[in-house]
Amino acid sequence: MVTLFEILYEDADLLVLRKPAGLVCHPTKGDEFSSLVSRVRIHLGFEPHMIHRLDRETGGVMVFAKTDEAGAELRALWAAGLVTKEYVALVRGRMPLGEGAIDAPLGREVSSSVAIKDCVRPDGAAARTRWRCERHFERQKEVYSWVRVWLDTGRKHQIRIHLSHLGYPILGDKIYGGDERIYLDFVVGNLSEAQQKFLQVPFHALHAERLWFPWNGSELGFVAPPEPWLSDAGAGKDVPWFDDPYAPPAESRTSRPSGPFVRPSAGSGPLVPGFNSQEG
Questions:
Q1: pLDDT in tens, 136-149
Q2: pTM, two decimal places
Q3: Domains and CATH numbers, the chain
Q4: Which residues contact 74 (CB under 8 A, 6 or more apart)?
Q5: By CB distance 3.0 to 4.6 Å, which of 53, 118, 208, 227 could disulfide with 25?
Q6: H or E element at residue 166
Q7: Which residues of the chain have pLDDT under 50?
């Protein structure tokens, strides 16, 4: 038996789950298991409302609405900027410890051979990213930094571009990691051993760890800790290369819900476990 996904919380209105790194949000193949939204459709038995999305290689918390009313309310929260999204990333280089922010507009990188690549450009859309570098470590004579990131806007590839623009590309990033030829080789299934060695990890080291928003008079928050390969990389360990694990399964099922954690008052204090809740 193979799970469709890990459920973090589910009720009559919401389905909150952990998106695994490597699984696309929208269908790109003919089979029903090739995307997150198609797997959610299998689980629910009807068409879900996908409120937001993550890049294929970014894992972490995602929220789906199960009704039209809940979908409209969630979209209004996103549009009003009332949803907080917190990521963790492993980047190359010694980023200054402490907090910082980057305001840099984003738009299409017209000189790139990668059609989906964007860049910082003065005529782009406004984009702001806040970050906090928590620690450094050295591995094989290279320095890496573990960074926590918050989005004030939600542009395509925003975190990846901003961190790379600052000089600290995300480890394993095939587009913004310094050599876009890696991505071009990857999409045709032609990554060399040397390219894999440079990347070090099979997916880029970015994870949507926490997400919270006001809901029914309180504030719901959800946590999905990084996958083991990313935790290992963040601890300076070698990560064995592995292929895409999301081949169509013969059979499938879903995990049991574990519940949210609740912060009664918005705007201050750490996220704390709520009644009958379990982080992750």
A1: 999 989 999 999 99
A2: 0.86
A3: 2-263 (3.30.2350.10)
A4: 49, 51, 63, 65, 213
A5: 53
A6: none
A7: 1, 247-258, 261-280
